[in-house]
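Q: Could you fold this chain for me?
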Amino acid sequence: MLAIMLFVAGCHSIPPLDTKPLDTAGMNYDAIHQLTALNITAPEVAQLVTARQAGFSDASCIAAVQIYRGRSQAFDGGDEIASLIRAQVGEDTILELARMNQLGVGAGELEAMRLAGLSDAILLEVARQRAAGRPVLAGASLANLKNAGVRELTLLELVRRGVPDSQAAAIIAFRRHGATDAQIISHFAAL
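A: Sure. Below is the predicted structure, expressed as structure tokens.
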């Protein structure tokens, strides 16, 4: 009886993972093979298809899964990656955001920042500040500062220096009263 139960239990096999959606999304055989070696799951396949269809490369898909595996997490960033790709955020920037674990809730704000014309360098610096738990100007504030004529390098420096979002209105007022970018950095650097 025990032998029959073991035989019946052994007959139940796990169905193979369906990787056809990855092939349909344009992923090459070698990339699919590398991903299956990472033991991807069906939900991860769906997330990878979303990222790949948005234009994320095979190599970047593999790298993203490896980053998530390094944190012992399932890959669930396909939707965020697709949104960032559509906003023309670079693949290297997206992978760096993944390394900083910043593809979650804040990815929507990063997408909006990029659509407002802020550079990948500013996106990364905002993400670094947030990952470190330091204060940082919000995306909407950075866009408003850009619209007020503050240069990109000045915005980047303000973010690097940890100027809090509560100072955004003061910076805009200072700019409207004729302050140069150098004066803005000098005045708000000590915060």
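A (continued): The radius of gyration is 23 Å.
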